[in-house]
Structures are given as C-alpha cells and as structure tokens.
Design goal:
single chain, transmembrane helix, 60S ribosomal protein L18a-like protein isoform X2, transmembrane, membrane, mainly alpha, elongated
Length: 103
C-alpha cells in the first residue's frame, strides 16, 4: 500500500478493520445500534403482528404520521408499510359493512 492510504481503515499489525469515525458528522455511528423488536424495527414488527392483531397497523400508522422515523430513518419503510396495511384493512371493513348492511 502507498503511504497515503495506509491508515484509512485497516490495522496493519492485526490485519483487522478498525472503525472509522468522522468528527464532522456525529450521526455516523447512529446506525450501529440494532433496531428494536428483534432487530427488524417497530414498523415491520407491527406489520407482521398486525395480521393477528390489526390494531398494531393503526398504532404504527400513528407513529408514522407523528414522524417517529425522525429518530431513526431506518424505521420509515416499515411504518409506511403498516400504514398501507391499515388503509387496506379500513377499506375492506367499510366494504364488508356496506355489504352486510345492504343485505
């Protein structure tokens, strides 16, 4: 290796990688922690659990609209998926109620 790249991220003595830290961006190590709920995040956990307890979809929808994902942007996709599931569930309930009431 040339001298310019010799200490970029590899420890020469051990041959292992060393973590890089950016003093200008303190959020760089923010995503090193695993997500809650078994590492998949609240949104995805709510999506899966919502098939048994649909109230979980509505809980995740509230978190989505309250911008909970600002704490950790990795949560945004799961919360959005749960919000879509809540919308589909609501439409299905309205259609089922309309069919039952009309017949």
């Amino acid at each position: 290796m040339d001298q310019k790249h010799s200490n970029v991220g590899v420890d020469q003595e051990k041959g292992d990688y060393t973590p890089l830290k950016d003093e200008e961006d303190p959020k760089l190590g923010l995503y090193d922690k695993p997500l809650p709920c078994f590492g998949c995040g609240i949104g995805w956990f709510s999506l899966v659990l919502g098939f048994v307890f649909p109230v979980m979809w509505y809980f995740a929808t509230i978190l989505y609209f309250c911008n909970y994902y600002q704490k950790d942007p990795r949560e945004r996709a799961g919360l959005a998926a749960s919000a879509i599931a809540a919308m589909i569930c609501t439409v299905a309930i309205i259609i089922a109620a309309a069919v039952i009431m009309s017949g």
